[in-house]
What does this fold into?
Amino acid sequence: MKYLLILCVFTSFVFAKLNIAVSIIPQKNFVEKIAGEKANVFAIVKPGASPHTYEPKPSELKEISQANIYFPIKIDFENAWLEKFATQNRDMKIVEMTKGVNFITMKKHKHHAGKEETIIKPDPHTWTSALNVKIMAKTIYETLIEIDAVNKEFYRNNYLNFLDEINLTDKKIREILIDVNNNSKFMVFHPAWGYFAREYGLVQFPVEIEGKEPKPKELIKIIEEAKKENIKAIFTQSEFSTKSAQTIADSLNIKVLKETPLAEDWSENLIKMANAIANNN
It folds into this structure.
């Protein structure tokens, strides 16, 4: 009976899955590629919601309290919640998924005491780059084998397979964009494609700044610049208003294309974006 009890405890431990929390849907895909069936992975920000302003629900806070690992990604809502998550679950290992990433900087304007301050902050949309995802994959792999060394070989095989998938995705994108001129501009409502643009020699032309619709005067300037650049389409996403984008599209008689960087299938999504740029260049 004693040995049976020990065996049951050992079996429960061996087959227990890790509970892993991430901030956004694409991260869930990355972790699942490497952790496979050894982990339950959940994303805090649900589809259709903006990760810049998200407030976790009680059900999501409960999941955080049961997590073994949390991978933040430097997205805006974490600024208000990361410390609370750490306090709520002191046993949870918090590992910044983007460590080692070469960040693009963004300017943010802040009004304080009647004065406007310019703050330089890192662009959080790191997952739109194949190179960045390789860096993240390494961080995920190293974290998993540290927490669960017993399954190191399993994680290693999945990690190598994922690297192959990333390389193939990158190759396909380069083939799709082969006839697109270097430094070609593509118009986006929300500036979420900076890393994608940097990696493939493109320039994103954003409409909104810091999540705000442009004012009428700014909108006129944007439309004039878009005419000069011969912009043929504007990319929007469901997480943000499309009012200004539609106004620009109507003025220029161009298409509005919905492409969200927050889709679950990261590889398919980036290939889809490359095709849309190539076809509208």
Strands lie at 18-22, 39-43, 69-71, 93-94, 105-112, 115-122, 184-188, 202-206, 233-236, 255-258.
